[in-house]
Amino acid sequence: MSQETQDIETATTAMTSEAPPDSRTRRYDRQLRLWAATGQAALESAHLLVLSSTATSTSILKNLVLPGVGTFTVLDDAIVTPADAGNNFFLEGPDSIGKPRAQEAVRLLGELNEGVQGHADVKSVEQLLTAGKGELFKYTLVIAHNLPRSQLERLSQLLWEDEDAPSLVVVRSAGFLAEFFIQQHEHTIIESHSETAPSLRIDKPFPALLQYTQSLDLDALDPTDHGHVPYVILLVSAMERWKKEHNGLVPQSYPEKKAFKELVSSMKRKLDEENFEEAEAQAYRSWTETKVPSEVAELFSDPKLQNLNASSPPFFHLLAALKAFTAHPPYTLPLTSTLPDMKASTDAYIGLQKLYKDQAELEKGTFKSYISPEVQIGDDIIDSFVKNAHALKVIRGSSWNSIDKDATALANAVTASPKQLAIHLALSAASSLASKTPIPLQGEILVLTIEALTQEAQSLLPPETELPEEFEDTAGEIARSPTADLPNTAALLGGLVAQEVIKMITKQYIPISGVCTVDLIETWTGIL
Amino acid sequence: MATLVNGSATADWPGRYFHIDQILDKPGPRTDPGFAAGAEAPFLRDQAKILVIGAGGLGCEILANLALTGFKHIHVIDMDTIDISNLNRQFLFRSKDVGKSKAIVAADFIMQRVPGVEVTPYFGKIQDKGDDYYMQFNLVICGLDSVEARRWINATLVNLVDPENPESLKPLIDGGTEGFKGQARVILPTITSCYECSLDMLNKQTAFPICTIANTPRLPEHCIEWASVLEWPRVHGDKKMDTDDPEHISWLYKTAASRAKEFNIEGVTWSLTQGVVKNIIPAIASTNAIIAAACCNEAFKIATSSAAYLNNYFMLIGTDGIYSYTFEHEKRADCPVCGGESLDFPISMEVTVEELIDMLIEKQDIQIKKPSLSTPTRQIYLQAPPQLEQATRPNLEKKVSELVPGGGEVTVTASTLPFSLSLNIIYN
């Protein structure tokens, strides 16, 4: 059974189990199977601020209003132009021309979902920046599309200075090219929905599992029962025999591992016993030592653990408890209570499942005893933390323009990710040039030459660093369409950005780290 | 500066295509020399006729994107009606539209929102239409959730190709999503890899063996399958199970729950029951937006030559960061639809016809449900009509080697497929 199916099971168990779902649950059914009621609740309590109501901005919002984000505010002082009315689905063609763009967009986006609150704020970005932090900090997250560089610098700084400030998603696009970046301080994830299954600890059988295996006389079973002993038991049993004959050691070399598999195979009574076939296929689990996964072990040296206090987020208190748990035998994470499906009779499987559940419950109790008594953490969070302990994540982000100030990173990127870097530099150069040039009249295109873009991009790089070879073509595309907010590019960015915002808000799945660049000529995305 | 193109629909207002015309008025550094700067718009806006198959999660997005990029003659086919569970992503529909035709409501919405675009809906199946119908389009975009429908349209468009008539080659752009994952691809029938060439890339559907369901249930899913596959027909006889009928789901849920209780299995819920029997695939607006945009962007590039189009497969996984992979999927020489070569099929001399049929059903790159088999000279086994099925049934127990010589050809057909598969039987 795949991890995804398990997730669906968990998700659906969280819904009201007995009766047909209500109409709200039915509406959201297809997404609740991904992020469950907990993710949905997080989404519904979020308040987003979106700066501008361009085609890209409304495309992003559409994909957040549909799944039911709580509240959104569009801040935009623009009046709808004929060009806006042509590329934005959330304007009503010529009827919207001349009206405040934020109001038109909010009205039409609002029609998508009655459960969502939308607000239009016709202030300018300048006014918002002047109003300062108090105004900004009421939002969960801020999204900015094609903001002039000078304003973006001030905005990102305001949101970076404070640890508790909302995250900022910076989106830039021109023609077929685009990039976006999430400025985030610290993002902790319990439910990362990892594809990796937690260890069943076959190599370190817990006492009840070992006892059960030892009490089972395989030779005394009738043929049907013999073909229905779960592979977990078979492997534990075979390993007990092996260790007796090999000084208590598990198979070390390839020939030994092969010999172990032959031992498992020799225990078959008939050629086609599927449970034994599964045991052979899963044999590696019995000699692979269950340890704390290295990514999780790394989290144990997180600076937040050194200075833990009553006001630290629950995640770090739980992480501290986990660290303490793993410092004791058997030096593993708490046992999982989820047993994958395997060839077995109902009774044998349910019996084994009960052994795992009981042991998992026991270990969870031990884990809880390590949680600092000065904090109160709900049981459902503890359950989820233990269940997902093998795939916990902590993302420590950086400020929006940090890459542009990191000479080493830029120099490395020239060779490691030249195509991605070319897009980032070309869009940055265009944004800088646009800040320096007077705003073109309505209907006129800003003129950016390849030469000017190249010069500007070169100035963003540390001295002695050459632009990647790909830059010229990339700059040529920007020069072709410096201010084009193409409907398809807008729609694609709308999907990508909304998806990352959902991951940020629900704290489920793993958002990007770095700059995501998009080329819709060759049709690829890449992280810088 | 955008200009009003002569002869285009009157609804165009000055500046309407300000954004798109930046692309159409100038070539980029990598644009094909065949691109006529400033002269591609009339084809896009006056002549191009595009068919959208599916007006669901992808279809709604596709229609909106095409309309905004300037396609004016759009047709859309969908046989489904709107359900409340569509509203979290199919953004052209509202609560009041539940029960109505997706194709009709979507077409009306687009025409009302984007002036001057003509969207012609067809509320029905793609199989209702013949070659003449498909011949009228310049491009076809598919946003479907059914493998069977995709195979049908793919085979139909491959068969439509007449080497003497370049107009008969209709680029097929296909998109698909599942949760946070999706793919978009461009198929040039007979030239590039086709949908059939890549069937082995599909995830195998979880199927539970009947003996597990009947005798050794372990998971809640096993109990639900027992209720729907074994108990429903036993209790209700010929009455058809309707997975859209909440009363039927409730019955299945209760039946599955009582079996689960009997076996001490936890986790049967109403929602899981519905998910298993309807084979529900999670679906969200954002993934659909990404994939639909990728598809429409290819349509735009093909229709205007403004940039190179995708060669030929874009795959996206959004669960852990954003991972995408763009590659050229290779054409298969033995593809039953576009390959021309027959498929070598090695079997033992002892294999019976029935076993051969099971092997075909199991094979991931063939994916056939109820195959009928024949050789150029005789019928081996036919699934229908009933008289022929009865007449050929005795062959099921015979060995294939009694009926087909080594190196002999077996033609495989199925009612769900618009093509036949030719096997070259090799005994080993």
Automatic annotation (TrEMBL), chain A:
User: Which residues belong to any copy of the THIF-type NAD/FAD binding fold domain?
Assistant: 28-127
One Pfam family per UniProt? ThiF
Q: One GO molecular-function annotation for this sequence?
A: NEDD8 activating enzyme activity
Q: Sorted alphabetically, which Gene3D superfamilies does this protein's record hold?
A: NAD(P)-binding Rossmann-like Domain (3.40.50.720)
Q: Where is this region: Disordered?
A: 1-26
Q: Please indicate if the UniProt record lists Ligase as a keyword.
A: no
Q: Ligase among the record's keywords?
A: no
Q: Which UniProt keywords apply?
A: Ubl conjugation pathway
**Pathway(s) this gene product operates in, as recorded in its UniProt entry:** Protein modification; protein neddylation
Any one Gene Ontology BP term: protein neddylation
Q: Per the record, where are the segments of Polar residues compositional bias?
A: 1-16
A cellular component annotation (GO) from this entry: cytoplasm
- What InterPro entries would the database entry show? APP-BP1, ThiF/MoeB/HesA, ThiF_NAD_FAD-bd, Ubiquitin-activating_enz
| The protein's role, per its UniProt record | Regulatory subunit of the dimeric UBA3-ULA1 E1 enzyme.
Recorded family membership: Belongs to the ubiquitin-activating E1 family. ULA1 subfamily.
Q: What is this protein called?
A: NEDD8-activating enzyme E1 regulatory subunit
Biological source species? Macrolepiota fuliginosa MF-IS2
Automatic annotation (TrEMBL), chain B:
One family from Pfam that matches here is E2_bind
> To which pathway does this protein belong?
Protein modification; protein neddylation
Domain (E2 binding) spans: 345-428
Q: Please give the catalytic activity noted in the UniProt record.
A: ATP + [NEDD8 protein] + [E1 NEDD8-activating enzyme]-L-cysteine = AMP + diphosphate + [E1 NEDD8-activating enzyme]-S-[NEDD8 protein]-yl-L-cysteine
InterPro entries from the UniProt entry? E2-binding (IPR014929), ThiF/MoeB/HesA (IPR045886), ThiF_NAD_FAD-bd (IPR000594), Ub_act_enz_dom_a_sf (IPR023318), Uba3_N (IPR030468), Ubiquitin-activating_enz (IPR035985), UBQ-activ_enz_E1_Cys_AS (IPR033127)
Q: Name one GO biological process term.
A: protein neddylation
Query: What would you give as a GO molecular function for this chain, any one?
Result: NEDD8 activating enzyme activity
Q: Which UniProt keywords apply?
A: ATP-binding, Ligase, Nucleotide-binding, Ubl conjugation pathway
GO cellular component annotations, sorted alphabetically? cytoplasm; nucleus
Q: Where is the active site?
A: C211 (glycyl thioester intermediate)
Q: Does the keyword Ligase apply?
A: yes
Report the superkingdom from the record: Eukaryota
Q: What is its EC number?
A: 6.2.1.64
What family name appears in the similarity comment? Belongs to the ubiquitin-activating E1 family. UBA3 subfamily.
Q: What does this protein do?
A: Catalytic subunit of the dimeric E1 enzyme, which activates NEDD8.
What name does this protein carry?
NEDD8-activating enzyme E1 catalytic subunit
Native species: Macrolepiota fuliginosa MF-IS2
